[in-house]
Design brief:
The chain is an alpha+beta fold. It is about 20% helix and about 25% strand.
Length: about 475
């Protein structure tokens, strides 16, 4: 670490000065300085043990950091494993010694990089194999009421969400068990920003060299894992072995879960480079393919989606068509403009379909009158999968919508029901104009509180989105 090296340089300079003294005490002082150098070196060098998470010792000097992305070697190694694109962008423009540690070889594949980092660090076992299937559910399904599909859009989740939700909003305390579905190693434990100390964690388990489980909002950790929990809003990375079905912690009302398989590349992201800020996003497989019976069927029983693919869908891009994800030109794709990651979704735009009722067209807009909103389309047409450059400017009226059950009643968004359908409202909340100006660029403008009759064409506020 830079602070450690700086300390040794100062001591060495003082040692050189003392050597030129003609004092009877100089040899005593020189010997004392040598002892201090040896003692400081032994104290500041980090130690690691197999099966433990290594932490970096504190120093009176500020630890090295990658701008606002992360602080300290440990945290930055973990952050850049999961957010490689952001780290690469920063390191291209900045001469930071941490870049040599977190990005040792930017030309290698993600799997190769993770494997080599483990081998070189000496603290993690190498991953084993590629394919696997699980015999255990990620949570206690008997205490879980619903399982939400991939592909939801809500608020700042503008593009279709890449993870599931296990939920039970009737539950009152942290007592619903969370398990590891298979054998593996915990490679990261992160305390979620803004959470109460000792609660709310993100955990990554590497099951094989290509397949991982990601949990978000693990409310409480087991006693075994608590000793590895990071202090404050930090991340600890390491190699903690876990067994199939091992208890990891507990959730109260909600826990996020998704699988990542780096051998899978989703075809509906036609420009994968746009997702380098969350590099796992293009590797989200069909969840049910990774669970053996009877667990697979038990999870499907809890699922609210009844349309194939049952696990949900997040990649809708069709090259040369309006449907799919778009990003405000010049905002670095999914990463957005903000280096602090705050409100990075303002430049996101998704023109896709509802996660429960895929017949419903949805406009999910990152910056609609200063807020992030989701709308249905009045008349539910024209289908964005049919719109191309030749169609010119298209006008859509935006309306709110709700979900109704098979008996026609409104869904409370927490009960376990099947066959949900959307019901659009009549009131027009605004208008959007969109025009494909090339196969991978569109012109877009929103007109809140306007109707189609009040909007005739683009203004100077229109913006260009790309993919």
């Amino acid at each position: 670490m830079q602070s450690h090296r700086y300390r040794k340089v100062i001591i060495a300079q003082k040692y050189t000065k003392l050597c030129s003294m003609n004092s009877p005490n100089k040899y005593f002082i020189i010997g004392l300085l040598i002892f201090v150098v040896v003692f400081v070196s032994s104290c500041v060098l980090p130690r690691s043990e197999k099966g433990t998470i290594e932490t970096t010792p504190t120093s009176p000097s500020a630890p090295p950091q990658l701008d606002t992305l992360c602080t300290g070697e440990e945290e930055c190694v973990s952050f850049c494993l999961n957010n490689r694109g952001q780290c690469e962008e920063y390191c291209k423009e900045n001469n930071n010694e941490l870049c040599l540690l977190v990005l040792p070889d930017s030309e290698k594949s993600e799997t190769e990089i993770k494997t080599e980092q483990k081998r070189e660090s000496g603290k993690n076992q190498e991953c084993e194999g590629t394919k696997t299937k699980f015999d255990f559910a990620p949570v206690n399904l008997d205490k879980t009421r619903v399982f939400l599909p991939l592909g939801l859009m809500v608020g700042g989740h503008v593009t279709p969400i890449d993870h599931h939700y296990f939920q039970n909003f009737e539950n009152k305390k942290f007592d619903i068990e969370i398990y590891s579905p298979g054998k593996g190693h915990i490679t990261s434990i992160q305390h979620m920003p803004g959470a109460k100390e000792g609660e709310d964690y993100r955990i990554i388990i590497e099951h094989t060299c290509t397949i991982s489980s990601i949990y978000i909002h693990v409310g409480l950790l087991t006693e075994r894992l608590q000793k590895y929990a990071p202090e404050g809003m930090n991340t600890n990375s390491g190699n903690i072995p876990v067994e199939a079905g091992e208890l990891l912690g507990y959730y109260k009302t909600n826990v996020d879960y998704n699988l990542v398989d780096t051998e899978i590349v989703l075809p509906g992201f036609i420009v994968p480079e746009h997702y380098k800020a969350e590099s796992w996003k293009i590797h989200i497989p069909n969840t049910y393919d990774y669970f053996n019976e009877p667990v697979r069927s038990k999870i499907i029983e809890k699922s609210l989606r009844t349309v194939e693919p049952l696990a949900g869908k997040i990649d809708y891009d069709i090259d040369g068509k309006l449907v799919g994800n778009w990003f405000l030109e010049g905002t670095d794709g999914y990463a957005g403009e903000s280096t602090s990651l705050e409100r990075y979704w303002l430049g996101h735009l998704s023109i896709v379909y509802d996660a429960y009722d895929p017949t419903q067209i949805v406009f999910s807009i990152g910056n609609y009158d200063g807020d992030s909103r989701q709308f249905a389309v009045k008349g539910n047409a024209p289908d964005p999968a049919m719109i191309s450059v030749e169609d010119g400017m298209i006008k859509y009226e935006l309306v709110g919508y709700e979900y109704i059950t098979s008996d026609g009643t409104s869904w409370d968004r927490r009960s376990a029901v099947k066959g949900l359908k959307t019901k659009s409202y009549d009131f027009v909340e605004g208008v959007v104009l969109v025009q494909m100006i090339s196969d991978r660029k569109i012109k877009f403008e929103a007109f809140p509180r306007k109707t189609a009759l009040q909007v005739n064409g683009f203004t100077s506020k229109a913006e260009i989105y790309e993919r």
